[in-house]
Amino acid sequence: MVKIAPSILSADFANLAQAVQVVEQAGAEYLHIDVMDGHFVPNITIGPLIVKALRPRSNMFFDVHLMIEQPDRYISDFVKAGADLVCVHAEACTHLHRCVSQVKELGAKVGVALNPHTPLNIIEYILPMLDLVLLMTVNPGFGGQKFIPEVLPKIKRLSQIIKEQGLATEIEVDGGINSETATLVTGAGANVLVAGSAIFGADNPGQAVKDIRKAAAN
Ligand code: DX5
Ligand code: ZN
């Protein structure tokens, strides 16, 4: 079962609650919230206050993608603000096991994100602790970038490992996902699809959610 995770990074920030409502009504399961600090990535975006403000407006699963250095400093703020899942970048954590444990102890689900070049073996020994692995299909920092096809074999390999180990870990992909690439990534084994510009850049974002879901089923 594929889940669609619209990324509000491409939504109208002056009308966020309305944007969220549209994709929720269209059946999207996760709301992908991109947090950037201007250090780990060049861009600066959303903080815990926005998550807190959106929380009473939606019943969607809040999937918070932290593209920040030393995420351990902010994990508890995001969980308190209403994150259902907190995803940290392996490249941003010196003590990745500690960061992952911190999220779990706070009672939220936990994910680890890997940049396109980062090998899977960085999570080999903590994989059973993870609810989700986020494989970046662009270099993080901006919406609207082109899908990097070199990540496809990595999705396949991770899907194989998860099956071999009998785990329920979800594989999320993020970057350049649209109706065309959705078919490729689900074919490789991804089951949570983040899409920003393909949804909120469309004339009808609700229809775009449905189109991506349909393409993913092919
Ligand atoms: C990129 C972010 C993405 C971004 C995806 O660094 O992590 O979530 O919003 O945008 P699109 O779908 O436009 O590539
Ligand atoms: Zn993201």
TrEMBL record:
<keyword id="KW-0413">Isomerase</keyword>
<keyword id="KW-0119">Carbohydrate metabolism</keyword>
<feature type="active site" description="Proton acceptor">
    <location>
        <position position="34"/>
    </location>
</feature>
<keyword id="KW-0862">Zinc</keyword>
<dbReference type="Pfam" id="PF00834">
    <property type="entry name" value="Ribul_P_3_epim"/>
</dbReference>
<feature type="binding site">
    <location>
        <position position="174"/>
    </location>
    <ligand>
        <name>a divalent metal cation</name>
    </ligand>
</feature>
<dbReference type="GO" id="GO:0019323">
    <property type="term" value="P:pentose catabolic process"/>
</dbReference>
<dbReference type="InterPro" id="IPR013785">
    <property type="entry name" value="Aldolase_TIM"/>
</dbReference>
<dbReference type="GO" id="GO:0006098">
    <property type="term" value="P:pentose-phosphate shunt"/>
</dbReference>
<feature type="binding site">
    <location>
        <position position="34"/>
    </location>
    <ligand>
        <name>a divalent metal cation</name>
    </ligand>
</feature>
<keyword id="KW-0479">Metal-binding</keyword>
<dbReference type="GO" id="GO:0005737">
    <property type="term" value="C:cytoplasm"/>
</dbReference>
<feature type="active site" description="Proton donor">
    <location>
        <position position="174"/>
    </location>
</feature>
<feature type="binding site">
    <location>
        <begin position="141"/>
        <end position="144"/>
    </location>
    <ligand>
        <name>substrate</name>
    </ligand>
</feature>
<feature type="binding site">
    <location>
        <position position="65"/>
    </location>
    <ligand>
        <name>substrate</name>
    </ligand>
</feature>
<comment type="function">
    <text>Catalyzes the reversible epimerization of D-ribulose 5-phosphate to D-xylulose 5-phosphate.</text>
</comment>
<keyword id="KW-0464">Manganese</keyword>
<dbReference type="InterPro" id="IPR011060">
    <property type="entry name" value="RibuloseP-bd_barrel"/>
</dbReference>
<dbReference type="GO" id="GO:0046872">
    <property type="term" value="F:metal ion binding"/>
</dbReference>
<keyword id="KW-0170">Cobalt</keyword>
<comment type="similarity">
    <text>Belongs to the ribulose-phosphate 3-epimerase family.</text>
</comment>
<protein>
    <recommendedName>
        <fullName>Ribulose-phosphate 3-epimerase</fullName>
        <ecNumber>5.1.3.1</ecNumber>
    </recommendedName>
</protein>
<dbReference type="InterPro" id="IPR026019">
    <property type="entry name" value="Ribul_P_3_epim"/>
</dbReference>
<feature type="binding site">
    <location>
        <position position="65"/>
    </location>
    <ligand>
        <name>a divalent metal cation</name>
    </ligand>
</feature>
<dbReference type="GO" id="GO:0004750">
    <property type="term" value="F:D-ribulose-phosphate 3-epimerase activity"/>
</dbReference>
<comment type="pathway">
    <text>Carbohydrate degradation.</text>
</comment>
<feature type="binding site">
    <location>
        <position position="176"/>
    </location>
    <ligand>
        <name>substrate</name>
    </ligand>
</feature>
<feature type="binding site">
    <location>
        <position position="7"/>
    </location>
    <ligand>
        <name>substrate</name>
    </ligand>
</feature>
<feature type="binding site">
    <location>
        <begin position="196"/>
        <end position="197"/>
    </location>
    <ligand>
        <name>substrate</name>
    </ligand>
</feature>
<feature type="binding site">
    <location>
        <begin position="174"/>
        <end position="176"/>
    </location>
    <ligand>
        <name>substrate</name>
    </ligand>
</feature>
<feature type="binding site">
    <location>
        <position position="32"/>
    </location>
    <ligand>
        <name>a divalent metal cation</name>
    </ligand>
</feature>
<dbReference type="InterPro" id="IPR000056">
    <property type="entry name" value="Ribul_P_3_epim-like"/>
</dbReference>
